[in-house]
Amino acid sequence: MASWNDYNDAQQNPNLIPKGTLAKVRLTIRPGGFDDPAQGWTGGYATRGGTGAVYLNGEFTVLEGPYSKRKIFTLIGLYSPKGPDWGNMGRSFVRAMLNSARGISDKDVSPEAQAARRIGGFADLDGLEFVARIDLGTDASGEAKNEIRAAVTPDHRDYAQVMGSRAAAAPVYAPPLVAQGAFPAAPAAAPGSAADPRPAWAR
What we know:
This protein is an alpha+beta fold. Helices cover about 15% and strands about 30% of the residues. The longest helix is centred in the middle third of the chain and has 17 residues, at about 85-100.
C-alpha cells in the first residue's frame, strides 16, 4: 500500500509514457507558413526558424491503448544552415514513417515499395498513421519529456499487433528491425520563450 508520508517510491512523472513503448500514432503537421517550391516545400506546412533552420512541426497523437489521446511533439528536420545532418535525419524519419504507415519492409526495393515511399507533398504526411517507438528525452529546461525517435516497420515482430487491421496484409520479415530517425521533440511552447524546447538554431 502506498504511504502518504513517504514519497520516495512515487513515480517521478506519471504523465510520461514509458521508454520503449510501441504505439499507433497519427501525425498532424502544425503549419508554419514557409514555402520553398524549389525544394518541394509547398502548402505552408514547413516552419522556418530565426536562424534559417527549416522543419515540420509535428504533433503525434496516440490512437489506441492505455495512452490513447496523449500527444507527443517532434520536429522533423528539413534544412539546417549548420550542415546536412538535420535534413538527412528528417528524410530518414519520413522514410521510416512511410514504411510503417504503408506496410513496407525497409529492405523492400521493389517498384511498388519505391512508389510507396514517394509523396506528392507534405499534405500526404498530414494525418499519416504509423507505429512509433516512444522514447524519453529532455527539454530545454532539463525536464524529462517523451519524444519519438523511430518508426516501426513490418520487419518488427510486434508491428502487426500494434498496427492492427491495416497490417493484416503486410508481410512480416525476420529478424526484427526498427527503422531509425532521431529528432528533438518539441512540446508546445511560445516560440522564442524560455520554455521553448527547440534547439537555439531552430527558433
